[in-house]
Amino acid sequence: MTEALEACAPKFGDAENAEVRISFAGSDELAAQIRQGAKVDAYAAANTRIPDELHAEDLLSKPVEFATNEFALAVPKDSDISSLEDLTKEGTTIVIGSESVPIGAYTRETLAKLPPDQEKAILANVRSNEPDVKGIVGKLTQGAADAGFVYITDVNATGGDLKAIKLPKDLEPQVTYGAGVVKQAEQPALAKKFVDGLTQGDCADALTDAGFGPAP
Amino acid sequence: MRSRWFPALLCVCLAAALIFLTLPVVAIFVDSSPGELIASLGEPGALDALWLSLRTTAASIAIILLVGTPAAYLLATRSFRGKAVVVTLIELPLVLPPAVAGIALLSAVGPSGILGGAVEAAGIELSLATAGVVVALTFVASPFYVRQAMAAFAAVEPTLLDASRTLGASEAHGFLRVMIPVALPGLAAGTALALGRALGEFGATLMFAGSFQGITQTVPLAIYDRFSTDFDSALALSAVLVAVSAAILLSVKLVRGGEVALGVAPR
Q1: Which domain covers residue A55, as residue numbers?
Q2: What pTM did the predictor assign?
Q3: Count of domains in chain A?
Q4: Which member of A13, A140, A206, B35 has the greatest number of CB atoms within 10 A?
């Protein structure tokens, strides 16, 4: 997401003769900042639940779904781990997202579909609950952990340092990204244009290039 | 009429500084009711975080005092070529952003760091382990102590040590019986600063040691974890951290009968 938006935002800025400033952080953390009154115009999240919540609290316009992603098990490129089964082995170190960030919620949702003893064995190997995906990817590329659950786009962004292990289709959570215009926006018209541009135009193209899927 | 603008300016600046520095801290307490504060402490995650913070901070302070005190004494009492470089290197973590400290620790003693193999061969587990938290705290907090301890030792009247030497005492004896007692207020002040820094450490801990309840999730990490989901609980935990930090600062001042001025070496 970071790489894609950083690539297309300047183009949007040039076209609109405006300066786009983007703050990247965990979706939940950004939402907390909006709830605390942060002056932002648009908000995009790695799920639809948080934008929906903000909309219900009358802090965000009706959210639009602008991209999808694939949930994946990520391991260092030379790892022997090849399936969820391998994660149940004692001594395997796993890092996941904390419960409050979308990636952490998707992870728990996915693991809950496993047989209870397998879910328990995997959770017992979790050694860190990271506040965002970057923390998970960093721990994996640094060899601090054996496996982690991230989005396929994050694996792609490591340029081969990590490899993704696809999960069985019936386990895969639906990862949909939602965005909207913040009610307190100082530039609501521009913000709406930017949000619309996530589904068509430069930003939509940049998202496709980064491996995101089109909105459902 | 003599101009009074300068004293007035001083007062205005002091008032501005005081308001700016205390308002956010006061707001934490205004925003969280005592009831909430106590309720948040009853939560197991919060207690785990507090207990972990206390243990890891105590361990890192013990290491800092044991190694830092003699090191600071050496730096304060000897001159040698390259001393300025040594002092600068020791002080460097003081100005390093915590994220840089985290990256630096990972590339030094992380699993794929330059000494990662040696650490693993020694059977020591640092990353994603409690020991890693202690390493991170020690790395960021020790310069605060060593700097202060150096100043404290340097301010001790050299004749005091000379006198003990003339009386036939060894340097080790003089260090333990003369230098440390005389420099104690300064050492205590340095300890308080290092304690405060260690208790508040966030970035290096998260990057190097991760965040797991009871293992690596210290109070600042627990606050961050609650920031998005449970702001009230984050506030309450922050209030506890403020109270503990203030208590540390105050107790050091009280123990020394008010003679310790933080940041100022004793005469």
Answers
A1: 2-68+175-209
A2: 0.82
A3: 2
A4: A140
